C-alpha cells in the first residue's frame, strides 16, 4: 500500500476538520464496513465520532450492493463522504503523526 510504504496511514478522521477539495475523482479513507457489513469503522477499528455523508445523494446508500468503503468526494457544491465499492481505484489520502524530538510540543498529524 502506498501509505504504509512511506510510513504513513490511510486517513481516518476522528473529528471534524479540513475538507479536501483539491482532487477531481475522490480519494480513499480507511473507513469501511467490511467486518460485518453494517458498522462503519476506521482502520484502527474505531467507529467514526464524526460523519460527513453526502446527504444530496442519500449516502451511505450502497447503490451497487457492494459499497463497503468510504471515499471523500466533491459533489460540485461540497466535499462529503460517499460509500463505494472497495475494488475501485482512487488515490489514497495518507496521514502521518509527527512529533518533535527533545521537547514537550506534542504531536500533530499531517
Outline of the structure:
This protein is mostly beta strands and 110 residues long. Helices cover 4% and strands 27% of the residues.
Largest sheet: 4 strands, mixed
Number of helices: 1
**H/E element order:** HEEEEEEEE
Instruction: Supply the helix-strand structural class.
Output: mainly beta
First-residue to last-residue Cα separation: 18 Å
> Can you name the CATH architecture?
Roll
Q: Give the strand order, joined by hyphens, for the main sheet.
A: 4-3-2-5
- Morphology: globular
Question: Quick check: average pLDDT?
Answer: 77
Radius of gyration: 15 Å
For the record, the count of structural domains works out to 1
What's the level 1 CATH class?
A: Alpha Beta
Q: Keywords for this structure?
A:
110 residues, mainly beta, Mannose-Binding Protein A, Chain A, two-stranded antiparallel sheet, 1 helix, 8 strands, globular
Account of the 3D structure:
The chain has one helix and eight strands; from the N terminus they run αββββββββ. With about 110 residues, it is mainly beta. The chain is globular and about 45 Å long. It comes from Diabrotica virgifera virgifera (western corn rootworm). Pfam families: Lectin_C (PF00059).
Set down the secondary structure blueprint.
Blueprint: H1 2-5, E1 9-10, E2 27-32, E3 69-74, E4 79-84, E5 91-92, E6 94-95, E7 97-99, E8 107-109
Parallel strand pairs: 2-5
Antiparallel strand pairs: 1-6, 2-3, 3-4, 7-8
Amino acid at each position: 500500500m502506498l501509505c504504509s510504504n512511506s510510513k504513513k496511514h490511510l486517513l481516518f478522521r476522528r473529528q471534524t476538520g479540513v475538507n479536501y477539495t483539491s482532487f477531481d475523482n475522490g480519494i480513499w479513507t480507511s473507513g469501511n464496513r467490511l467486518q460485518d457489513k453494517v458498522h462503519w469503522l476506521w482502520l484502527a477499528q474505531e467507529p467514526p465520532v464524526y460523519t460527513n455523508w453526502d446527504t444530496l445523494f442519500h449516502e451511505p446508500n450502497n447503490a451497487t450492493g457492494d459499497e463497503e468503503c468510504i471515499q471523500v468526494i466533491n459533489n460540485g457544491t461540497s466535499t462529503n463522504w460517499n460509500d463505494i465499492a472497495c475494488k475501485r481505484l482512487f488515490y489514497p489520502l495518507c496521514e502521518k503523526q509527527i512529533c518533535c524530538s527533545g521537547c514537550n510540543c506534542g504531536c500533530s498529524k499531517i
